[in-house]
Amino acid sequence: MVRTSQSVRVLGPADVEAALAVIARDPVVNVFADYRTRLTQLDPRWLGGEMWGYHEGDELVSLCHVGANLVPVGAGPEACAAFAERAMRSGPRSSTLVGPREAVEQMWDDLATHWPAPRELRWDQPHLEALRPAEVASDPAVRRTTREQATTLYPACVAMYTEEVGISPEVDGGRDLYRARVNQLIGRGWSFSRIEDGRVLFKAEVACASPSACQVQGVYVDPELRGQGLATAGMAAVVEACQREIAPSVSLYVNAHNTAARAAYARAGFVQTETFSTIMF
Fold it and tell me: Boundaries of each N-acetyltransferase domain copy (predicted)?
């Protein structure tokens, strides 16, 4: 098959059913695309970007979310080449390229000489799912964050983001937008925390959810309290709440070098099912 961007087109509301069928091949790994598709119905007014579709004949076989995150979905070599060609023509508009490692590697092989040099390359990020019982009891003090606790929680969110990403979410005028995001997650019931005497001991959020799965992000323990089991017990509580009230499968991905976090997640019942990669610009 000729590798050409002619195989790629921007999807719209009429393509939602076909897009969800592609996503359903691996609904846990593809939960971000699932969430965005259902939430926006692929209407560009709400998507804040585009969803590209790669076709073989008349059949939609792969997707690529194009927004703040460039995310290939179910993309084999031909689709990755076509998405990369389209991205080269449209120019860089995403702050990250993220997804299953093989697809990210294939797209970056084509994009590397055309897009700006990345700020960071994170090739080895185990994708984990909560598939086993936790080895410890869940922390009963971990609860949904309330609106009244938003001001207390916010600095911990900034600290976690800065530690994880390497830059503050407040740079370049991002404070109001990031604060709105934190408040949005609290309002949805997707923020969990243990707060005592005005101090955030542990916190985590659900980044996205679908009828099949949800993905946890922003796991944080007060630096002075690390190594005491707060992350393991806290994540066990988050998994229980998510499976009971949000989605049956709970996932996350973590940097391979973060051995402490990986050990905590393993004790909380998480098992590696895929490897992700993230390229940051």
Answer: 144-281
